[in-house]
Automatic annotation (TrEMBL):
Pfam families: BPD_transp_1. One of its GO terms (cellular component) is plasma membrane. The lineage of its organism: Bacteria, Bacillati, Chloroflexota, Anaerolineae, Anaerolineales. This is NitT/TauT family transport system permease protein. The keyword Cell membrane applies.
């Protein structure tokens, strides 16, 4: 069993390396075959050199930290309020029927469309970016919270009531563990969306962050810098996604035992 797990892990790591090498080879091939200038499509080597420059002058670290702060703040606040409201709506069909049209309508408006308004209303500081981040995370986590809590078997609720369980005990011992897989699924979606929310806010108006770095690169026709910003965002999203997967393994260990 242990050997099969190790072999699967090695196969997965090998497949990732092969995919990455294949991607870089195709990228380099396109640049060479079509003789593309750097401002249209820089080569992997040029992007690597721009990475090194951005790291050495501190611009990449400074802007990455700004985006990471916005992402984590928006993710935490969005998940907190979505889970809180989701729990209330899961318990009250009446409230859900009243608020559902407003929630659906709010999601029908693209975040990109309202981001400029939020920046105008709340300024180009960190708060507007965190707010955009929280809004884009809010709905998927809210829906998963409602679905997860309502999926708890009713016979188990009856059993807890027969044992004179308090509402807190009902939540802690039954509802939360039973709904956890669905809740974490919503968190997995929210983790990647939070990066998008932060960048949308930074692209609209900001003086720091990876979105700001991409704007600078675009304005200066420094396409290699744009690639640096985009690839750093991809890496950040992958790290967040991996953290949620790790959290799932820790919290849902009882499902595999």
């Amino acid at each position: 069993m242990e050997l099969s797990k190790k072999s699967n892990r090695k196969i997965k790591q090998l497949s990732v390396i092969i995919t990455l090498l294949l991607f870089l080879s195709i990228w380099e091939g396109l640049v060479l075959v079509f003789d593309l200038p750097a401002f249209i499509l820089p080569s992997p080597l040029q992007v690597g050199q721009r990475f090194a420059r951005a790291i050495s002058d501190g611009s990449l670290l400074e802007n990455s930290l700004a985006t990471i702060f916005e992402v984590f703040s928006g993710l935490v606040s969005g998940v907190f309020f979505a889970t809180l409201l989701g729990y209330i709506l899961a318990k009250s069909t009446f409230l859900e029927n009243i608020l559902q049209p407003f929630l659906v309508a709010s999601q029908a408006i693209p975040t990109v469309a309202i981001a400029p308004l939020l920046v105008i209303w709340f300024g180009s500081g960190i708060f507007s970016k965190v707010l955009i981040c929280a809004l884009i995370v809010f709905f998927p986590v809210l829906v998963n919270t409602i679905v997860g809590l309502r999926a708890v078997p009713e016979n188990l609720r009856d059993l807890m009531r027969s044992l004179k369980a308090t509402p807190w005990q009902m939540f802690r011992l039954l509802e939360l563990p039973a709904a956890m897989p669905v809740l974490l699924g919503g968190l997995r979606i929210g983790a990647t969306l939070s990066v998008i929310g932060a960048v949308v806010g930074e692209l609209v108006g900001s003086d720091s962050g990876l979105g700001f770095l991409i704007n600078v690169g675009r304005g200066q026709y420094d396409t290699a810098l744009v690639f640096v910003g985009v690839l750093t965002l991809v890496f950040l999203a992958l790290v967040l996604y991996s953290l949620v997967l790790w959290l799932e393994k820790k919290l849902l260990r009882w499902k595999t035992n």
